[in-house]
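Protein modeling request. Please complete all fields; requests missing the sequence field cannot be processed.
Requester role: graduate student
Desired output: 3D structure, token encoding
Chains: 1
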Amino acid sequence: MNPAERPTTQDTAIVEALGRPLTVLYTQAAAGAAEPAVQRVLELRSFLALVEDQAVKTRDRIRQAADPAGDLYSVPARHLRWQTELLEQTLEVGRRYGHTLRELLGVPPADTSPSRRPVQFTQSKIATISPRDGGLTARPGPADAPVAAGAGAGRHRR
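Delivered output (158 residues):
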């Protein structure tokens, strides 16, 4: 099966972000009419489709080997360990492709926590700076006092 025809876990996000069905996007890419960013998204999607397909096949082989109706001793333990390691590595690659696709599309991950409120300071703003000896001395003042010109611009010593 062609990677363009294989479903992936990111298909919905791609269609929502780009506003066109995958068939249209792939047709435009094949004709050379797709934007470079869309081309990169489709390339990553194709890699993701292959990786996810491999993960499903590996998972199915592990399930078949662990089938209670099957012969317990027909599959060597080292073979099962190898299949399990392959599945873990394939899933890790799939997670990385999915993360990269979401970054390209500007889609936040589904499991992000709600954003926190920005930090609010309760102290007053710095009102004056005294650079008599070349050092900075901050003096707290009222919150609505204007900040002295050059505030925060320290002298660099070499």
